[in-house]
Amino acid sequence: MARRPLPRILSNGGAQLARSRELARTAADSATDVLQPLITIARGLRRLATAARRRWTDTPKDRRGALLFLVASVVLVVALMPYGPLLAAIALMAAAAWQGRDRTPPAPDGPDDAQTTRLTSLYEALVPYFSIPDDPDPLYVHGGSWQKAFPAYEFDDSGRFSHLVIRYPAYFTDGEAEARTRIEHLLTAKAGRSREYHYAWDEEANHLTVTVLAPLPADLAAQRFVTAPGETVLGFTDPTRVQRTLPLTHGEERRDVPPVVWRTGVRSTEPHLLALGQPGTGTSTLLRSIALQALHHGGDLVIVDGGGTGEYACLTGRDGVLAVECGLSGALASLEWAAQETERRLISLNRARQEGHPPPEDTRRPLWILLDRPSAFAHLAAAEERRDPQSLLQVPLRHGRAAQVTVVVADQLDCVDALGDAVRQHTRARVVLGPATADQLAAALGAPPHTTPVDQVPPGRGYARLGTGAVHRIQVPATPDPYDDATSDAHRQAVLALLPPRTTPADGEQVPDGPGGGPDPAADHAEPEPVPSDSATGPAGAVAVSPRPQAAGGAGTPPETCPEPSVPVSAKWEPQPQPQPDSAVPTLTKH
Ligand SMILES: Nc1ncnc2c1ncn2[C@@H]1O[C@H](COP(=O)(O)OP(=O)(O)OP(=O)(O)O)[C@@H](O)[C@H]1O
């Protein structure tokens, strides 16, 4: 079915709203400036009236007559004097202006004692890093003054730094990543490890600006995101690094949140994605979130789950989901079909181009291949002397972009050695979730983040980098498995609402229904059916790989443990330039 574009107000409504709010705020500020004298006099008159009323109530009743007589006499004298009423009005306005003045005490000029102690201790800690014995006029010296070293600082209500500008001597090697990292670690320790900091090095001015980052919202649930076809929201980030915002609902509330949007398709510069993380940090949740968005935009999905824990059962048999595979045979069959389908699309596209026709209809529907923990299959395939399913990703990874085929791989950080070369070289969009060392982040993303990772992070929190772009902090929207008992009801309903309807079964075919409308996990432990060899059958037509429920620990289910790495445990992964036009891709290579 043809899709109509979103109305303009929905596609860029967030930006318009933000602009209108900004205009309203500017207008209110200007009006307040112009009306400030009137506001002051009105406030003073109110204070004078309150004081007069208090005086009247405090006066004993037997003296009120005399007081009233005195006031009446003064009013009479003023009224009879030449220019008396005018002078009285001027005097009243002056008194009101004086009474109505802003009486908030001015902020103290310098830091208080506790703040001075913090600044002094930080200065002393930096001395060994920012001084050399031969410096005739050292900026940093033991017992020296911090005033010249810290030109700007701010503290929060708890007395900790919220913003700090640090000057450093020109001979400090701020171009070296190691030297910077040393300073950043020291500052993180001194300013409090429980928060995240952004470090901006100004190499021209020899200034380092440290800013405390507000925690990313961790309560955003899966929902329909206002995005165009070909755009996938990976998560949400800081407003400073992203211009665009998305309107999100959170219960009754509406918020505009800056997203990290990944673009796929023929014009994408990062057509495939690799998500890494420690176990339980939310990589499967990210894949589920991507799957729901892909289905919403009319994509076809092949899901291969090496974890074998049935986390994608909710997608089985849904419109657009071609297969959800947990066993090795099923994974091999599905990926073989996906590789053939990519080739078929390429041939068809090429033929159409040569004949001067537009791309054929059956090559336009996006095909998504989602692989969770392929490293588990690598181990199993080696044990059974069968083909590693990852080897079948070569064609989709290399040529998928032109054929609207997108590959998303998720695996554990410790199992990165088991990922094939093609996966490492062709996944230019990268996400790392959960705790990770600075080295692991730099190796996986191809560049270190400008913020320090914190020790305790909620699930779904991490970093994302699209190609050679900036490294973003990211929080993945909560998209839990709706069939998991631990999932809250609100989150379950949110995910269920996003699932497409079930595929109408072909004649005689049964799509099993389990509890809660889901598939029966015990219904199929058998090896999958052979894949039709005729790959020219488009996914939009007859389903190439018939939907089947998840195997839950059957003979073909891969082990849940991570396979032994094929190189020593100390093996290190580092970014390596590619010998291709897209050579800036962060690749992970063995040492
Ligand atoms: N973005 C998120 N927001 C809220 N909760 C999340 C988020 N991501 C994951 N979780 C929760 O964290 C737990 C682990 O998530 P998930 O299964 O996606 O992790 P994983 O990295 O795939 O781990 P494993 O490989 O062990 O399955 C689940 O309970 C899930 O609901």
Tell me about this structure.
It is a single chain. By secondary structure, the protein is an alpha/beta fold. Among the domains are: 113-213, Aspartate Aminotransferase, domain 1 (Alpha-Beta Complex), CATH 3.90.1150; 231-517, 3-Layer(aba) Sandwich (Rossmann fold), CATH 3.40.50. The chain contains 14 helices and 16 strands. The chain has helices at residues 8-11, 13-34, 36-58, 61-80, 84-99, 113-126, 177-191, 283-296, 328-354, 374-383, 394-399, 421-426, 438-445, 489-498; strands at residues 152-155, 161-167, 196-202, 207-213, 231-236, 246-250, 253-257, 259-263, 273-277, 300-305, 321-325, 367-372, 405-412, 429-433, 461-466, 471-475. The protein has an 8-stranded mixed beta sheet, sandwiched between helices. It has a 4-stranded antiparallel beta sheet with strand order 1-2-4-3, with helices on one face. A two-stranded antiparallel ribbon has the order 5-8. α3 (36-58) crosses α5. The chain starts with 7 loop residues before the first helix and ends in a 93-residue tail after the last helix. Residues 508-585 have low confidence and may be disordered. Adenosine-5'-triphosphate binds at residues 277, 279-285, 307, 311, 459-460, 476, 478, 480, 486.
